[in-house]
Amino acid sequence: MRALNPEILRKPFAAYSHGTEIPGGSRLVRTSGQLGIRADDSIPDSAFDQAAICFENIRAILAEAGMTPADVAHVTGYVTAREHMAGYMQARDRFIGQTDRLPGSTLLIVSGFTREEFKVEVEVWAAKPE
Predict the structure, then answer these.
(1) HEC profile of 3-44
(2) Using only C-alpha atoms, what is the Rg of the chain?
(3) Which residues lie closer than 8 Å to 11 by C-beta, 6 or more apart?
(4) In the chain, what are the domains?
(5) SUPFAM superfamilies under this entry (predicted)?
């Protein structure tokens, strides 16, 4: 994959690329939105801890497909308030910080999820040449 950051655009606000080129013939994985809930049904209070769980879940999904965070083409994050952005971004940067190419990224503030205690949801697109 190739990061696309045309010189005429303002630099990205954070650790992401404006676009990602996915080569033809790549296998694609699209995760469902992952919430910050552990396998034992516990939900931490902080946005960072919830986001960390989301990214751990995504790492496991990617591993099952023979992929790693380096294969992520795009990350979409959802938080329920602006004050949760920093914790989410810290967890996202830790997740993608192991790669030499930054994926595309979108972050949205939403009114809520299915349960009040959820503060973060994350989904990704990943691609790997066959």
Answers:
(1) EECCCCCCCCCCCCECEEECCCCEEEEECCCEECCCCCCCCC
(2) 15
(3) 5
(4) 2-129 (3.30.1330.40)
(5) YjgF-like (SSF55298)
Q: What is the pLDDT of residues 81-116, one digit of tens each?
A: 999 999 999 999 999 987 788 999 999 999 999 999
Global pTM reads: 0.94
Listed residue (58, 75, 70) closest to 128, CA to CA: 70
Which residue from 112, 106, 113, 110 is spatially nearest to 92, judged by alpha carbons?
106
What's the CA gap between 128 and 123, in Å, rounded?
17
Lookup result for tokens 């939403």: 110
CA proximity to 92, closest of 47, 53, 55: 55
- Separation CA 8–CA 41 (nearest Å): 46
Structure tokens that stand for 49 in this block: 């801890």
